[in-house]
Fold this sequence. Notes:
The complex is a heterodimer.
Chain A: H1 2-16, H2 19-31, E1 34-35, H3 36-46, H4 55-67, E2 71-76, E3 79-84, H5 87-115
Chain B: E1 9-17, H1 21-29, H2 31-37, E2 47-50, E3 57-63, E4 69-80, E5 84-91, E6 99-108, E7 111-120, H3 124-129, H4 137-143
Antiparallel strand pairs in B: 1-7, 2-3, 3-4, 4-5, 5-6, 6-7
Amino acid sequence: MVKYQESSLDRTFGALAEPTRRAILALLCERRDASVSEVARELAKARPRTRPMSLPAVMKHLDTLATAGLISRTKTGRTVTCRPTLGPMEEAMRWLDEHQRFWSERLDNLAKLVEEKP
Amino acid sequence: MNAPVNMPISLTLKRRLNASPARVFAAWTDPAMLMRWMGPPGVENVSADCDARVGGGFRFVMLNANGERYEASGVYQEVAPNEKLVFTWAWATTPERQSLVTVSIKADGDGALLTLIHEHFADEDARDRHAHGWSGSFDRLQSLFA
């Protein structure tokens, strides 16, 4: 559990560091859920000029997203449904928020200093 | 999407300042000036040390309003006087998590436009390659929550 805590942020960022996986996640956030074949179909639609990705390739990306805890999968009969789980994303957003606040405050100070009349 | 795959997350801030690029650059590289904006004013044990040369280091010790101590340090990767500074950034509490800050300063009329990009490295490989410029990622990431 402790190990999970330590590496989860890195795993989130690692999983997000790939355009196809970001596209899958955006798609799932938009639709709330989708089956594996629907994900593959939507990806192909989003990139009409490129060769459609094979189902195993799509599944591999889904594995990576699932390992990072960014999606969950449930099997009903022969259909696997994927849903986004935003916990790890929230951790990533927290990093951004904290640093945004930090730098915003600092840059306010910087502006005050450099704009002082000498 | 042409974004480098090794830059999954970044933060971009822009400021228009009524000061010359040289003065803004000095504010980032002169320890006495850094002291006046990096930490809150009037706090005694805040320090700013910097050696703004490629390979040189810096260390900022800050206290927030609640008296909590923050310490950040890093190494300069690129130094272009009055134009650009690139340095690694790590908080003392998480030294293994190294990120990269790029500060660009451009003349804008009688003032300067400052752009700050703070990129979070996903892993050690990404850190070593330290490619730049995925400023749209923050927007994209946010759009996932829209």
